[in-house]
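Running log. JK asked me to keep both predictions on one page so they can be read side by side. First protein, sequence followed by its tokens:
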Amino acid sequence: MATGSHPKQTSLRDLLRASWVRTSLKIGIILTVAALIIIWLLKIFNVAATPLFHDMETFFLNYGLAGIFLATILAGTVVPLGSPALVAAAALFGVNPLELIIVASIGFTLGMTINYLLAFKLGRPYVAKKVAPDQLEDIDRAWDRWGIVLYVVFGLTIVLPVELLSFICGLFKTNIAKFLLISFVPRLFVFTIIVYFAQHLGAWLNA
């Protein structure tokens, strides 16, 4: 991976302890707890038996894949659309799981590729407008040593902003084939887990 020259490196552990990373993790935990509470309430009130649930199911079956594709492209370009939640909802309402996983993974990868290409062409002044100064400084120091590992760790963790690192990959001119591989495969894994969980959740809600 091509990198710049940084006077001071930092450890991966130090980066994961950065305030913005800890904030992302805290928000992720809060949202996860909130989602579990909502799921419990849906089961208690037997929402799966209501006309609204069936209307939503029809909507997702008709338009789910197209919507997920557009939403994940935007989510990959740092628009906060909550793509994991949308993918889970689509799986919950019966969208074909294999198609859903592939479409979501491709969409998110395309979104991050847009970031990559913009950073590649426009350089650090552009990236500095998209990544907060403290985030950019933290990532910059760690990139020489942990670039690929860091990108994969963020890609495998739903609540960490991997889309920010796609700017860094473009800035340091990472090989495009390598970038596409380490963008697509972690998201493929993440979306597979999400879809698997949502399918079982749907069966539980309908039981």
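And the second, directly underneath as requested:
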Amino acid sequence: MTAHLLLVEDNVSLLDVMREILLSEGYRVTPASNGLEGLKAFEREKPDLILSDVMMPHMDGFAMLEAIRAHPEGATIPFLFLSARSERAATAQARSLGADDYLFKPFEPNDLLDAVRIKLERRRIVELFDTRSAHLQTVIMLANVVEARDRYTRGHIDRVQAYARDLANLLSWSAEAMAILEFGALLHDIGKIYVPRRVLNKRKKLIYAEWSLLRQHPAIGAQMLEGIDHLKAALPYVLYHHERWDGRGYPTRLGGTDIPQEGRLLAVVDTYDAMTSNRPYRRALSHEIAIAEAHKRAGTQFDPQMVEAFLELHRRLHKSPG
């Protein structure tokens, strides 16, 4: 969704230049030439971020910020002051009113774009974490339902989540991506709720019809998440974790980097845990054999870069002391 910015500046030339810079990056921009206009625009449109000059006619930036922060829907909107360097002494007042940051004039276009991007990313992360706690218990409950139906995969979901978290940290994923991973890893097998217990717990090798039923769980899980707005971001973990780098996986038969990175990451850690766990039809493999097998499958089943990062992770974890 396109971010909506409210831009308040009494210098018309500067207002036009900033507006064009922001529009060129795909933002939706509402301009206002003073604090009073800005306040009215805020009440009318509820932007995602406000950028405002300090010294303006009719209502200055401080008064506008105070009025916005007093509004029920204005308490959490990021607010960035555009200030002349001579106004540095006013930063304490701005902080006390709830301003998020200052951008001092004159500034380069990239300075403006970086400040906007950072503030919007921070807001997304805050919103994500605000809802995370509220939804996490429900997600854990759903994951537990899956494990309760399959006696051979107890602990699998928690282990996969831990491996996925460690690997994503090594790859320097963003805080937002890490928060989504928490849900995605827990929910990756949610579609197994619709797979019969007799199939999940069968001690012998599955026949073709049973295997076909089991292979439906990624698509079924994705359909379940599509109806839950706050879990849609986790959908790539659910839908793509059985895809293969060579395009021979399921259910979409994507290959290479066409597979979202979430699916490529989870494919490695999910398979590693499956190999090192007891299954109905075989005993668990040793860590050494499983790691060798992951390396062997790089470039066919797995993304080679994901495998290399996973091997590096395990080299660090199993490094001999001293």
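Observation for JK regarding the second prediction: The chain has a mean pLDDT of 85.
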